[in-house]
Write a structure and sequence with these properties.
alpha/beta, membrane, 11 helices, binds ligand C2E, transmembrane helix, transmembrane, Bifunctional diguanylate cyclase/phosphodiesterase, binds calcium ion, 280 residues
Length: 280
């Protein structure tokens, strides 16, 4: 495959949702893009206050459209989910990320974890599970960063027992589970106790209110306190200012992700960032 200009991968205009295509054209374009493997990935590293080093990185999909340029996942993930195309996109994302990490020799010594966004539909889709299981087994050598699967809270739980069984099957592969956008959805605290969840990501809408909005401050503190009691890793996302970072650190947050530390990077930039961590 031809490589694209360096900057095109990571930058696109602010990601509010616009109608790029009508629905039918979008579906046709997505099918074509899957066939042509027009999707690529970027990586946003996460900073660990306790080690003063990088913790892991989140993989984010980008659609490199031949005429429109880089298209944000906000424009197409939802439609891909509704049209049953998300499984194929996730397979491409997985394959690209593992191939790049291998090629650039990014190991667990550089990055403890590598996180993927999974639509909840994938977790229960047999054929997709089979493909991804095989990919995970191939990728999982001792040097590979630990795989974390981020599930969004809104989609998660209708039936706790069934969800538990699905997640536990995946856990046998050695992956960890994270709840994305925590605080915006429906996960009850009892589900948090019953499901095999290892990590919580505090939604960036709460972080955005720190330190001006008293309610954001208090909700964030409560989530941090609860996560510690339950012994879950907690990651604050969307950290953009040093005030937010200081507040989080003072309240026991260990891992942070956001523009203050790094924007999403292509694999070359990621490698460079891992070799030259910021001096914080
Ligand atoms: P998310 O999982 O909540 O990912 C974080 C989003 O916040 C990313 O947007 C990231 O670029 C952005 N971000 C990171 N730091 C900051 C910050 O400091 N400030 C602000 N304002 N934004 C920040 P992105 O890449 O546009 O992804 C949007 C969403 O698309 C993701 O939200 C995720 O839900 C979905 N997505 C991305 N990649 C995939 C994928 O491979 N599969 C699936 N199913 N969904 C994906
Ligand atoms: Ca995520
Ligand atoms: Ca999120």
């Amino acid at each position: 495959a031809k490589s694209h200009p360096h900057t095109a991968f990571t930058e696109y205009q602010e990601s509010y949702r616009v109608n790029l295509f009508d629905r039918l054209t979008m579906v046709e374009e997505l099918i074509r893009a899957i066939d042509k493997k027009e999707f690529s990935v970027v990586y946003q590293p996460q900073w660990d206050f306790s080690t003063n080093h990088w913790h892991g990185a989140e993989v984010l999909v980008r659609w490199y459209h031949p005429t429109l340029g880089v298209i944000s996942p906000i424009q197409f993930i939802e439609i891909a989910e509704e049209e049953g195309l998300i499984g194929q996109i996730t397979e491409i994302v997985f394959a690209k990320a593992f191939a790049e990490l291998k090629k650039f020799e990014i190991f667990r010594t550089h990055l403890s974890t590598i996180s993927f966004n999974f639509s909840y539909a994938i977790i229960g889709n047999r054929s997709c599970v089979a493909v991804l299981e095989k990919k995970i087994e191939e990728a999982m050598i001792p040097q590979t960063p630990e795989i974390v699967i981020e599930l969004t809270e809104t989609a998660m739980v209708q039936n706790v027992a069934a969800t538990k069984a699905l997640l536990e099957r995946w856990k046998t592969l050695g992956v960890k589970f994270s709840i994305d956008d925590f605080g915006t959805g429906y996960t009850s605290l009892s589900q948090l106790q019953q499901l095999p969840i290892d990590e919580i990501k505090i939604d960036r809408s709460f972080i955005a209110g720190i330190p001006i909005q008293p309610t954001s401050n208090e909700i964030t503190k409560a989530i941090l306190a609860m996560s510690q009691k339950l012994e879950k890793t907690v990651i604050a996302e969307g950290v953009e200012t040093s005030e937010q970072s200081e507040f989080l650190q003072a309240n026991g947050c260990q891992v942070v992700q956001g523009y203050l530390y790094s924007k999403p990077l292509d694999i070359r930039q990621l490698k460079a960032a891992l070799e030259n961590p910021p001096n914080l």
